[in-house]
């Protein structure tokens, strides 16, 4: 083992990953189940020479993120479902103004106040834009504390690479659990990052304007085309975990915490001779369409399992359209899922052949 | 006879016609802001935050780095900018619908935290860009497209007095209300904006200047009559003055 | 044969079940294994029991949440009632016999390890170390880790201002281990 492992919660891994990635502005508002993040950063961020602001609302924290991002500084806000709803305005403006920032949603039960337990009910909101207008955010879905750390760390690079908001979609399970995490060495930041667009005060150059308002004839159409091309180019970032898919007849598709819980079920069924595998998208946008389609082309069948009433299953079906379909099992928020909960649905899907 | 230049456009102010209506006073306020930026020598390190409303095009006229904020969120965006770039000079420019209605939480909390930013608040008692709807500062009896019979105290509440409200908050170093209807008031406005900018430059706290201004189009008055309304109707409702000046309080 | 062990640790709030869960998981990590620790929180915490789940494995761990555990550390009666039915057949059931009558355990179905955790902790000078006694018994009964690995990790999970209590806690771990099979 190279670096020393630390034993931390997923929430803390996100905070640590942000610090190690050079995030120096954090804005947040308290909401369960992610309070470990602002609590940790309230002291760790100033200690690292950065800024911590407890905002008056998630509306404000997301707009503070917008302001810091406009300066080309690595900045983050974190929240959970109801708070992330309030952030959608700023996220849309950031997408329209092409500003890089990291937004973390530790998904809890909904709709409305829901509960403080785990849920994947915000999949649609996360991957289909979430706010108004025709935009996308990169969406990363960690299933372990190490991934909470790594994906947060990498989220900043992605945000700057594409000049786009990046959303980390975790949940209450991965946020509250503890695992060993191997931190990475903090890298020196590229001083040239954002050099051609960030606001610094105009100095001797022409003034820069970061905006999402395009009123001239055709200007907005041009901007939307440009954004669409950018979103398509994000396909290069597709990430997923494929477990025992090579000879599988049925592939379980699940993301985040549900992906790892389903992995236990898949292992157990494998041991009993069932030819099942697991496909876990790590990027939810871009969605690993081509990879799923290739598996469908090999004649495999699919069962999508989610901690909601069926959202990602739409994207699975779109990926395999014309070749096959996906069954669906929804484990309802309000309850904590265990591997046993997925046993019967997977067996049923295997039999459905 | 040799020509003598006695009145010059500040370099930071763009030499272009504005989109503002005849008789609108945004242009006057823009000019005063531009003069103050130059006089403090902060043009090169200024980051402006433009808000939603007629003044969203601030960046077409004041030639500094600018980020556009969502409606009402300019003080939060400016907070993010200033926290990210402490060496920058940061000001937000907001109208009354933006600041006193949808953005009430953001302005109150940025002021209360004492963010080292300056907010220029142009109060013309009406939503201008959207076509003259009732604003939180609309005066009792004033007719707008959404209170066509005139604002009614019992139904809509009274106009909000932002300068007085902001002055009560702990982080505020300077807070004043001025107007630009007379030469004297323009000079006073410039003094107030200079003082508000100075509080940021001297790291004293939050600076706020409310400026009473015309909206002839939505008031359905001539430019002259609009200007007269400032003195006759608005100033009696929104008294001019300095509501907080931490530096002076320290002296006394 | 790969190593895999999971355990639900349950008791009253204040009995230190979260602490020994953390300690076991931390020791597993320091021993070079993969571990997960997850506490219950929120609505599930109501009703007098606090509990956490720890998984230790030399392979990548799937679910951190376990419905049918291979082992239990039960510190009070409500926890026995709640979790014993979920324990797998032949699973290890460490019971704090100071507070739970071992006769309530289904000894024909599971492997009962009674340990008088409170009395043993009392005899060492502090009832509050009953959690350590129970964990010592658990580690001895399952062999999931060497006891020394757990002792060595005490300094990482006990708050700094209690660090003077580490030797006593190590003693409690050893006393629990020594009590296995003697009850």
From TrEMBL, chain A:
Q: Which InterPro entries match?
A: 2-oxoacid_oxidoreductase, PFOR_II, Pyrv_Fd/Flavodoxin_OxRdtase_N, THDP-binding, Transketo_C/PFOR_II
Q: Which SUPFAM superfamilies has this protein been placed in? A: Thiamin diphosphate-binding fold (THDP-binding) (SSF52518), TK C-terminal domain-like (SSF52922)
| Source taxon at top rank | Bacteria
Checking CDD domains in the record gives: TPP_PYR_PFOR_IOR-alpha_like (cd07034)
* UniProt KW keywords: Oxidoreductase
The Pyruvate flavodoxin/ferredoxin oxidoreductase pyrimidine binding domain sits at: 17-185
Q: Does the keyword Cytoplasm apply?
A: no
- Record Pfam families: PFOR_II, POR_N
Name one molecular function that GO assigns to this entry.
oxidoreductase activity
Asked whether the keyword ATP-binding is assigned, the reply is no
Domain Pyruvate:ferredoxin oxidoreductase core residues, every copy: 248-341
Write down the NCBIfam families for this protein, in alphabetical order.
PRK07119.1
Q: What is this protein called?
A: 3-methyl-2-oxobutanoate dehydrogenase subunit VorB
Q: Which organism is it from?
A: Solidesulfovibrio aerotolerans
Q: Which gene encodes it?
A: vorB
From TrEMBL, chain B:
Alphabetically, which GO biological process terms does the record hold?
Answer: cellular respiration; small molecule metabolic process
Concerning Gene3D superfamilies, the annotation shows: 3.40.50.970
Name of the molecule in the record: 2-oxoglutarate oxidoreductase
What are the record keywords, sorted?
Oxidoreductase
Q: Which GO terms describe its molecular function?
A: oxidoreductase activity, acting on the aldehyde or oxo group of donors, iron-sulfur protein as acceptor; thiamine pyrophosphate binding
For the Thiamine pyrophosphate enzyme TPP-binding domain, which residue ranges apply?
60-210
Record's superkingdom? Bacteria
Asked if the Swiss-Prot or TrEMBL record annotates the protein with the keyword Cytoplasm, the reply is no
Upper lineage ranks?
Answer: Bacteria, Pseudomonadati, Thermodesulfobacteriota, Desulfovibrionia, Desulfovibrionales
Any single Pfam family the record assigns to this protein: TPP_enzyme_C
Asked if the record carries the keyword Transport, the reply is no
From TrEMBL, chain C:
Q: Which InterPro entries match?
A: 2-oxoglutarate_synth_KorC (IPR052554), Pyrv/ketoisovalerate_OxRed_cat (IPR019752), Pyrv_flavodox_OxRed_cen (IPR002869)
Q: Which Gene3D superfamilies match?
A: Pyruvate-ferredoxin oxidoreductase, PFOR, domain III
For molecular function, the Gene Ontology terms on record are: oxidoreductase activity, acting on the aldehyde or oxo group of donors
Q: Which UniProt keywords apply?
A: Oxidoreductase
Which residues are the signal sequence here?
Answer: none
Q: Where is the Pyruvate/ketoisovalerate oxidoreductase catalytic domain?
A: 13-177
Q: Where are the transmembrane segments?
A: none
Please give the PANTHER family that the UniProt record associates with this protein. 2-OXOGLUTARATE SYNTHASE SUBUNIT KORC
Name recorded for this polypeptide: 2-oxoacid:ferredoxin oxidoreductase subunit gamma
**Organism the protein comes from:** Solidesulfovibrio aerotolerans
